[in-house]
Amino acid sequence: MKTFRILLCLVLLTLVSQATAQETFAPLITENSVGFIHIDFRKIEIDAVKETFQKTGEAFLKELGFDEESFTATAHELAIELEKLDELVRPTFDTITKELGIREIAFIIDMEIISTGRGAGVVAIPWKNKTAKQFETLLSLLPSGDDFFEQAKVVGDFLILAMGDDPEEIAAIVKTWKPDPNAPIYETLKSVSGAEIKLVAVLPEQLRAMARTGAGLPPDMPNEVRGFLLFAATRVQWASTALYFQDILGGEPRKNSDVLLTVKTSRRSDAVMLQGMLENLIEFGINAARFGMEQPMRDQDIQIPPLAFQFARGLLRTFLPDVEEDMLIFRTKGDFGSGPVAISTIGIGTALLLPAVQAAREAARRMQCANNIKQIMLALHTYHDAHRALPPLYTVDADGKPLHSWRVQILPFIEQMALYEQIRHDEPWDSEHNKQFHNMRIMTFTCPSNSNQIPNQNCHFAALTGSLSAADGMPPGRAGFQPGKGLDFGAFSDGLSNTVAIVEVKEGFCWMDPTADITLEELVKGVNVGGRVGSFHTGGINVGMFDGSIRFISNMVDRGVLRALGTIDGGE
Length: 572
Fold this sequence. Notes:
Blueprint: H1 2-16, E1 33-40, H2 46-64, H3 68-99, E2 104-110, H4 111-116, E3 119-126, H5 132-140, E4 153-155, E5 158-164, H6 167-175, H7 184-190, E6 197-202, H8 205-213, H9 223-235, E7 236-243, H10 245-248, E8 259-265, H11 268-299, H12 306-317, E9 322-324, E10 327-331, H13 339-387, E11 394-396, E12 402-405, H14 406-409, H15 417-422, E13 459-465, E14 467-468, E15 477-478, E16 500-509, E17 518-519, H16 520-523, E18 540-545, E19 550-554, H17 559-566
Parallel strand pairs: 13-17
Antiparallel strand pairs: 1-2, 1-6, 2-3, 3-5, 4-5, 6-7, 7-8, 8-10, 9-10, 11-12, 13-16, 14-15, 16-18, 18-19
């Protein structure tokens, strides 16, 4: 919890620093300094920060269109949470700023330290005239076992914390540093003069030399990325970012408050070329993402609409820099706080989420479809246990004409006994009496993904029937459902787990129709290739195997495999 408070304080310090200048840390700026972040938090006001967060939160709620009751309740809860945050942060913040008198902090990246391979730089805190007791107080803000501050070393007028794995060696290097008033970092700092937060970096000659040879770059790095990095490393001189407290807290915006980053190149032509290379990188990244994501997503039944990639392209292009003389200026584009823009952004974001939502819904529907087939297979097994055989494809009258489908026979085993008893089994399925049941929707016989849900045509599962003669080197065989008399499982010489019983059909039919099932000839034509066997699932169909398991068969399945799966005694 104490570490959390420290982190919160550092976040506040970063957000609201009022850096006076880099003079405080001049003794630590040398010719090897390549990065410098300066934070000064003497003018921070926690109450102002709280007020800003509260106002920003309320404005956001209004943009979303909250009604008065919901708005009031949510804003009240936000105020409570901010008070809790205040209670958590303020004591630590007061200890740091008042009791310890810490007003500034700097992060310095140094090439001499980098060259050792043991670190990147140091965190420096002014520590002149500080006491051992104050150091103990600083340590008390951290939990036991957190040795980051415990390894701090006093070097001159600074408390130095190593950004690396050897504090002793890094502290020894810092002791040898000689200030350089002509260090390249100073020119960069001029570009953010007056800013309350300064983040600057320069490109040292050592890195330029490495860039010329491409040393240290991964060998499998795409050429587009490699080319950009090498060109940038040799042509960029420095980069800077400035943040202002008044911008963050919603005060009167300063001039050029939309500038995010400034990059200084050697000449204007370099800036223009870098701008073009960034555009090419965006196109490369979008195309690579599209190529890398579409097939895996398709395998998971998720379709990514072109909108997603166009939105990503447009979003990235909003960060493309403007060229001003020999500089690249990265600016914010558009007013994200305005109502129309905020609402449109939320709308587009929602649109991008739709494929995932649709995919989740389809996954649920496909699962329900598989569960319905599972219930059918359990009913068939229960029927077999009760009658020592499967139900026939359909029952017949004395003349051998179809009466009722196997689906009617299993009604008692899918909790439809009342319906089963109302049907006149000695009359054909389409007799005047039995017609009244045609429009009934038996949920177990339907696939929720199938759009064909109209009355009298809302059954989407068919049994396999018929037989195949020897062809194309394949032996003859028959299906597991035959008219007139049901088969015993003992007749399945190919094995129950290797034989399909139930398949999905794309065009629905009446659940009572005894002649609507699928023949083996229809099955071997393929899945979702224009025949009856198909579904509205992406990529294939659900099938029920005679052992009771459910499998998903791909559209790409070989016709020979379908033939083998459809027969009970083909010997495959």
